[in-house]
Task: inverse folding
């Protein structure tokens, strides 16, 4: 796997841990900067936390928790979705892994 | 007769498609998600049919509409009642869905008329016939079946020139099933003599064991939750969500332990309102112990085959490995240790069956039913060129009229697509897929009028394909539609920027400033961007030195003075809470609102100070010190150009430049006297005039001057390319410098701006001379030239002579770095004023940002 993709996965894991400790605001500036560096290098990172689940989104694999419903949201992101921009389009580098449940 | 070439591994859990092409086998990737394999799962959702990974998501939650492992039911009269479609479906029909989906992987545009499909060795005639029917229903005119152990053997043996004869064991341990087969090769003929298997033994069982036997006890120990296991694995139990996280961790651990002695499991989670951090290590020994009994079970089956066939282990040439779980080193080790039979690991166990099927297909032929005539061949060729796939003959295309309505440009996260269809469309389906694989509607019944919400990736052209399928799920290529929606730019709803918005930053190498684009011309308002830059000079607390954030509107390639300053923040040493060190970071956030109001926020990371300003673009903001520097840079550029025009006897250009220089000089005195505190209109008037002169100067000579400068630039580029390989000292840094300069070639040539071209040509010229001064032979010849100068060329010829002796000694000893230094000493001893050759302006202050 692309080393940068692994690096992004690790950074998002750290970000999640910091959020759990409610220290997110302290590091917001640093994370924005880090992710802007990746963005400049052509990586498009999507963190679908809280987004409405759609069965047409084939850029993540979802584990459905509890009762299936028409109104499900992403409640946990285990791996983010990562695209790489080319000249004017994008390629999917990593499928996301998410948990979805009834909103 | 035509070779089949295509092979399909129609697996219980995953399927693959491969093609033999000129001695090599190509595995086709899923255009959705780009995996090589397709999950053998079909989901009948309320309004669409999904096949593959997306279908698998519903497997546990919607078992009455989602089907997997139907391969085991092939050849039975089982019918599955599908609630959502209120109909029964057979295992053959489900397999047809998988086969049709695999056909979509083939991006080469070929017609798939015949195929080899693999079946387990255990399949009886009924099951084999059922597989064949599934292939026929998927539109294949000719279907050949091949037993999986034979396919795997072909993948291992093809490529070896050695004549094989004897017995082999094919050990297939996949994600969910296990099979072992005895394959005999006699007189070049291969056959499966015996087999054994367990349909519920594979990699997923190992993952579950890791969770239940290693993770759960650790978690119970730390959380003291007695019923954790029960709540974790019960359907809709309290910790069901956590179970998937653990399964994912288990899979990661399994992969890592294939090549590391231990794996550190680390995750945090909230249980009953308390955050737990779990950190524990799994060793490879623990993992091996965990799966040992399962592996032993497989080995027993292998031994049973040997016993039944009265074979000693010495009677088996090799064990061939198939399936992802055979990548586990313990499996390989145990097989070798317990049986003593050599284990062949020469092929990829995950793809071996599909690869073997393609090898087999290369030697199987079929008669195409409709032998294409030359005209049809041309159609086929055109279709290949356009990239559309076709599994159906053109005469079957129905009369359908499709009208699409959508915005071609958008700034939304999704766009709505309106589709109107007229004509006979009963039992037809459509499918919309985004080309990057991130969106797929699955198969949806076609209606006369419908909408689809298309999710868009930011700032790229989002390309979607809409394909129509008939009642047999064969594509109707003539009806395919291409939809391209460009996200981010040129929206008709927003107001576009008329010119580039740039920031002025320092180019310390050349003691000038240059423009860096923040927002490109035609970007749609409102806009926001954060720039991360470094401070290019140290600014002491309390000093009057400053940083200038100068935002300009105009052409990014032009000189900064030619552009319109629309916003400026000056941060002086007097405002700093501590010294600001060169190299420390500055974050600049720039926003332009819908009504073109510019806001600039600067944050100095070192002093943690924030500076904000909002500008209305109707006002200009000009810093006098910066204006003076810009004046000097322009004047010096014009003087250099004048010298060159004179040298080239280009009288017209010289006169025009002289006139402009005179005009420029007329503002010199006023500007020199002007103080920063002057709040009169004068600064704006002068800035405007200088800007006008700068633009006029760029236009002198028109196309011819541009041509000359372009050829000067390209000539210098060629010189550098030729001399670079001969450099002996500092080769790497010179190469890096050249790479940096040549990266911009395209932009420099496209700029059509004399100032940019001139500067780029000069940078290459400087590099050329630096290469020479790092080349041994050049240093030597330069020394002899300096030595040949008359004594009056040196300030102190006596001292020069003693340096000559030192230099000769250095040449003799091959000490060229010393020679380089000595040459510099000699230059300094000469009576020539070298500073006039330095192109860089003196006392450059710049913006303080690089």
Result:
């Amino acid at each position: 796997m692309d080393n940068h993709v692994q690096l992004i996965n690790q950074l998002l894991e750290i970000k999640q841990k910091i959020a759990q400790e409610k220290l997110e605001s302290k590091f917001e500036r640093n994370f924005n900067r880090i992710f802007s560096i990746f963005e400049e290098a052509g990586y498009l990172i999507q963190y679908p936390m809280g987004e409405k689940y759609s069965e047409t989104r084939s850029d993540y694999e979802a584990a459905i928790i509890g009762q299936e419903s028409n109104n499900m949201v992403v409640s946990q992101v285990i791996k983010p979705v990562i695209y790489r921009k080319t000249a004017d389009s994008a390629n999917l580098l990593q499928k996301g892994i998410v948990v979805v449940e009834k909103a | 007769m035509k070779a089949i070439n295509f092979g399909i591994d129609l697996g219980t859990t995953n399927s693959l498609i491969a093609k033999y092409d000129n001695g090599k086998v190509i595995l086709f990737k899923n255009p959705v998600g780009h995996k090589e394999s397709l999950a053998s799962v079909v989901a009948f959702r309320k309004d669409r049919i999904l096949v593959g990974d997306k279908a698998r998501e519903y497997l546990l939650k919607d078992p009455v509409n989602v089907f997997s492992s139907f391969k085991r039911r092939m050849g039975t009269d089982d019918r599955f009642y599908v609630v959502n479609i209120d109909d029964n479906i057979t295992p053959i029909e489900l397999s047809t869905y998988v086969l049709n989906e695999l056909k979509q992987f083939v991006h080469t545009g070929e017609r798939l008329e015949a195929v080899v499909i693999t079946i387990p060795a255990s399949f009886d005639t009924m099951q084999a016939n059922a597989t064949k029917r599934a292939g026929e229903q998927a539109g294949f005119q000719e279907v050949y079946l091949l037993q999986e152990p034979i396919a795997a053997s072909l993948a291992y043996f093809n490529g070896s020139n050695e004549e094989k004869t004897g017995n082999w064991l094919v050990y297939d341990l996949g994600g969910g099933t296990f099979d072992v087969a005895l394959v005999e090769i006699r007189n070049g003929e291969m056959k499966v003599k015996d087999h054994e298997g367990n349909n519920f033994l594979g990699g997923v069982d190992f993952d579950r064991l890791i969770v239940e036997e290693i993770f759960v006890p650790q978690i119970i120990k730390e959380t003291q939750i007695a019923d954790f296991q029960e709540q974790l694995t019960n359907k809709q139990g309290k910790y069901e969500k956590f179970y998937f996280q653990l399964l994912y961790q288990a899979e990661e651990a399994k992969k890592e332990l294939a090549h590391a002695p231990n794996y550190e499991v680390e995750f945090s989670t909230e249980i009953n309102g308390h955050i737990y951090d779990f950190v524990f290590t799994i060793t490879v020994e623990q993992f091996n112990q965990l799966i040992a009994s399962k592996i032993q079970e497989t080995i027993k089956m292998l031994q049973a085959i040997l016993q039944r066939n009265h074979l000693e282990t010495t009677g088996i040439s090799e064990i061939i490995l198939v399936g992802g779980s055979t990548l586990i080193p313990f499996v390989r080790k145990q097989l070798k240790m317990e049986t003593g039979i050599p284990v062949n690991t020469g092929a990829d166990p995950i793809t071996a069956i599909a690869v073997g099927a393609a090898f087999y297909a290369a030697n199987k032929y079929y008669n195409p039913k409709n032998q294409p005539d030359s005209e049809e061949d041309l159609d086929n060729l055109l279709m290949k060129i356009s990239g559309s796939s076709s599994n159906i003959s053109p005469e079957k295309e129905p009369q359908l009229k499709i009208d699409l309505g959508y915005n071609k440009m958008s700034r939304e996260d999704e766009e709505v697509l309106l589709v109107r269809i007229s004509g006979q469309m009963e039992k037809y389906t459509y499918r919309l897929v985004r080309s990057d694989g991130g969106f797929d509607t699955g198969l949806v019944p076609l209606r006369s009028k419908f909408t689809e919400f298309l999710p868009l990736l930011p700032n790229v052209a989002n390309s979607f394909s809409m394909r129509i399928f008939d009642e047999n799920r064969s594509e109707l290529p003539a009806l395919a539609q291409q939809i391209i929606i460009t996200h981010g730019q040129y929206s008709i709803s927003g107001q576009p920027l008329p010119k580039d918005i740039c920031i002025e930053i320092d180019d310390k190498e050349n003691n000038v400033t240059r423009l860096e684009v923040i927002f490109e011309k035609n970007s749609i308002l409102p806009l926001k961007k954060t720039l991360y830059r470094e401070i290019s000079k140290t600014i002491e607390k309390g000093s009057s030195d400053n940083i200038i954030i100068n935002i300009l509107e105009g052409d990014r390639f032009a000189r900064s003075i030619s552009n319109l300053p629309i916003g400026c923040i000056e941060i002086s040493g007097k405002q700093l809470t501590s010294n600001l060190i060169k190299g420390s970071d500055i974050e600049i956030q720039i926003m332009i609102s819908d009504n073109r109001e510019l806001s600039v926020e600067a944050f100095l990371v070192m002093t943690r100070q924030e500076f904000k300003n909002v500008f209305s673009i109707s006002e200009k903001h000009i810093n006098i010190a910066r204006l003076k520097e810009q004046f000097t840079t322009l004047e010096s550029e014009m003087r250099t150009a004048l010298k060159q025009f004179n040298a080239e006897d280009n009288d017209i250009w010289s006169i025009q430049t002289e006139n402009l220089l005179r005009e420029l000089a007329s503002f010199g005195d006023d500007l020199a006297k002007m103080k920063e505190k002057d709040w009169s209109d004068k600064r704006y008037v002068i800035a405007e005039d200088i800007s006008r002169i700068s633009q006029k100067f760029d236009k002198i000579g028109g196309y011819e001057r541009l041509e000359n400068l372009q050829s000067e630039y390209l000539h210098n580029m060629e010189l550098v390319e030729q001399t670079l390989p001969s450099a002996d000292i500092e080769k790497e840094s010179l190469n890096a410098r050249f790479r940096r300069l040549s990266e911009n070639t395209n932009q420099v040539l496209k700029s059509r701006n004399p100032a940019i071209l001139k500067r780029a040509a000069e940078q290459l010229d400087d590099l050329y001379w630096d290469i020479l001064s790092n080349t041994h032979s050049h240093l030597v010849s330069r020394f002899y030239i300096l030595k040949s100068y008359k004594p009056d060329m040196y300030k102190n010829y006596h001292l020069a002579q003693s340096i000559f002796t030192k230099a000769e000694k250095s040449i003799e000893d091959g000490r060229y770095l010393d020679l380089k230094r000595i040459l510099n000493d000699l230059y300094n001893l000469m009576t020539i004023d070298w500073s006039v050759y330095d192109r860089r302006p003196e006392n450059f202050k710049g913006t303080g940002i690089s």
Q: What stands out?
A: Residues 284-308 of chain B form the longest helix (25 residues). Chain B has a mean pLDDT of 84. The CA atoms of residues 33 and 739 of chain B lie 36 Å apart. The interface with chain A takes residues 32-34, 45, 48, 50, 53-54, 56-58, 60-62, 236, 240-241, 244-245, 248, 268, 270, 275, 435-442, 455, 457-463, 530, 532, 587, 603 of chain B (CB under 8 Å).
